[in-house]
Amino acid sequence: MAFKLRITGAAIGAMIAGCAGFGVAQAQDSNVTLRLSHNLPTNNALHYGVMEPWAKAVSEASGDSIKIDIYPAQQLGAAKDHYNMARDGIVDIAFYLVGIEPGRFPIVSGAEIPFLVSDNDKGSRALYEWYSSYMDTEMPDVKVCAMFYDGGGSIHSRKKVEVPEDLQGMKIRSPNKMAAELYRLAGGAPIQMSANDAAEAVERGVVDAVSFPWKLTTSLGADRVLKYHMDAKLYSLATALLINKSSYDALSDKQKAAIDQNCGADASEHMPRAWTEYEDEGREILKNKEGHEIVSLSPEHLELWKAMSANVRAAWEKEVAATGADGARIFDELKSKLDSYNASY
């Protein structure tokens, strides 16, 4: 006897409901374009070696339903405004220098104390894992996707700087509060400004020295005036990739997963590698450039700078204590995390 398929009204209703649900799922994965903003030019490795590969990885993980348009060189806003830009939805994603607004984020600024980090990649993993305990409290307005260190910076100057006293009376561009405190203790006159603004200030004679990574010094043209380059990683800047919460919440589950798998500790460790290599190349460029001198520090001179950095840490701990937190304990947590990855200076 032939089998006859009987389709009931209930079955038809279920099929229609299923198709409708499928349509909703499809709509959730509709194409979306997100805007990502950062402060450096397109010839910097942050752009082509970090941001572009990250945007591509997110797009591929989403099945190409996410497109990320990148706006470099402060096109959409000044470097110091990028946290607010991500918070307020002016952009969907922002690259942010966590120390660019002195006093705003006191806990994470401790990650920029001079002579702290030796390995940028492992150090970046340590940074993210350490700050995971504090980001929801200190940066509650945004989704912190990743955190990583830049290539590390030193002092590039019009005259030779070897010991702290050599900075006496010099106007020096400082990238953050921690470096500024170090230079102030040495007798310098630190001026905090963005890298782009600092390069112009060098040309105009407004500053006598800058704290820059190596390659940034040449890519922004500061080496046309600054001929002496201290051969030491005085500091590394802590940075963050921030996502607007509403932009993230509007994504489908699959699209959120595409973002999430490119955020976190693993992403934080891998993202800065091209940037680190790029900055390391800059040392070789300046080393071989006519009229330039790489200033090596003796162990004794290096200890002078480190001793001064201990005073910077003490001042930071007092600032954090004023907020009700235990600065010494928080720093020990960070140092222990860096030590666990062999990433301490």
TrEMBL record:
Q: Which Pfam families match?
A: DctP
Keyword check for Transmembrane: no
Please name the GO terms of the biological process aspect recorded for this protein, alphabetically. transmembrane transport
* Keyword field: Signal
Q: Which InterPro entries match?
A: DctP_fam, TRAP_DctP_sf
Q: Which residues form the signal peptide?
A: 1-27
The record's PANTHER family line, in alphabetical order, gives: BLL6794 PROTEIN, PTHR33376
Q: What is the protein's given name? A: TRAP-type C4-dicarboxylate transport system substrate-binding protein
What are the top taxonomic ranks of the organism?
Bacteria, Pseudomonadati, Pseudomonadota, Alphaproteobacteria, Hyphomicrobiales
